[in-house]
Amino acid sequence: MNASPLLSIIAQTSDEQQLATEVDDKARRREASKTSTSSGHNARAHLQSARPFPVQCCGEKQTNIMKWARRQTQLNFNPSWPLSLQYGRENRDLAMISLDFSFNILTRDLSYYLENQVKVGLFGSGVGLSLVLGFSAAYTCYYLISVAKKPQLISGGKKFYQFLREQCPVVSETYYPTFWCWESRIQTLLRPFVTAKPGVVYRNELIKAADGGQISLDWFDNDDSLSHPDPTTRPTVLLLPGLTGTSRESYILHMVQQSRDLGYRCVVFNNRGVSGETLLTPRTYCAANTEDLENVIEHIQRTNEAAPIMAAGVSMGGMMLANYLGRKGRETCLKGVVVFSAGWDVFECTASLERPLDRFLFNSYLTSCLQASVHRHRPVLEKCYDIDHVMKARTIREFDERFTSIMFGYPTNDDYYHDASPVHRLKSVQVPMLCLNAADDVFSPSHAIPVEAVKQNPNLALLITCHGGHIGFLEGLWPRQSTYMDRVFKQFAKAVIEQGSRLQDLS
Length: 507
Fold this sequence. Notes:
Its main location: membrane. GO terms for molecular function: acetylesterase activity; monoacylglycerol lipase activity; phospholipase A1 activity; phospholipase A2 activity. By secondary structure, this protein is an alpha/beta fold. It has helices at residues 5-19, 25-48, 61-72, 83-87, 89-117, 126-147, 158-167, 184-194, 250-262, 291-303, 316-328, 346-353, 356-376, 378-381, 387-391, 396-407, 413-420, 451-455, 484-499, and strands at residues 152-155, 203-208, 214-220, 236-240, 265-270, 309-314, 334-340, 433-438, 460-465. It is built from 19 helices and nine strands. Helix 1 packs antiparallel against helix 5 (89-117).
């Protein structure tokens, strides 16, 4: 195998220096000086005129790099030069300078080649990286212009409107949904998984209903409250979960945490048969029937007569609260109510959930949850209902037709849906009620949000965000902690408890 030019120069230097003694020292040095200058210029001219490495297709890159590197490092000495000049000390120095110059060119051009031709990480070439950066900039602009917006606040009375603007600054702030999951369905699906579940220790209580059934209440007494150390006057917040929800849902736990920070006591109203208690009678629950809720509110008032009470309902829990207020008018002890993601028109809500994608993502799952609850209490329920027929339902509408509407004595399912829709009772609400809905909520479509009905009642206020989904309202880069919905709850609860006297007469 041939040695490199540099190694050959070093090996033969001593032999050739002996031949150089025959030449006159002065003539040899003079000739060497002239030749060195000339050869140095020739070598540098050759290196500077070297063609840059050509751009090749991927399959030829490695081969062409090696050929180009060998070609660039050749010295190209003139064979007519005397041996003493070719291999003497001066030419050895010249070779080192030339090789160093060639190496600098090789490094520079190879770096340029790698920077512009070799793939960059996961994003392909430099052009691909530019596309990614451009897309990110465009996405950010779209998010800031079209996604992040201030919510719309609507109220039937100027007094309630001003109260919310002053006491609840969150209603005037821009809502920034989580940057990477602002779409409605994604927010709805991810909320139970990405948000943390605060540790809460409940005290369970079972109370009797008029029909012989039992209702499960989960209390968080907050005995460590510093702002309200007296349990007899400690404010109480009543929480109502959604369709198949319990006190263990993440959104309920977050509201308990917010109430704890305020120094308040919480009690969660679990619908019959959903939280593990035994179903004593062949009756469960529905959005239209508020008898159990009335029983619970009266029980809370008797237990802590001096403590102010407010309530918050989520999804079906909010529908139940709105129907309760519409029936009771002023005959209630509640100081204020906040409702999240309520379905105002059950016909529209059901139709929205029966669209193909939403039926696949939500309707079928909720139907199976309802059927699972029925199956757990089958020994009690099968005495009055055709459970096999109920278990064959594929949608919420079919479940209600075969079970819910029959249980509560409605002639048809349409009669039940009409009675369960809170939109028909909003005009009768006489207690301050704030309602939060997202315009992209597939459970409560935007065209069914009762804007005009709210404008006709000074006790009502409606807060509509462009995004948030159904009980989503995620915000922040990684939404593990509180959501926009939690902030609305905390500020409104504090305003009602501490400034409730300003809301006594909103008409």
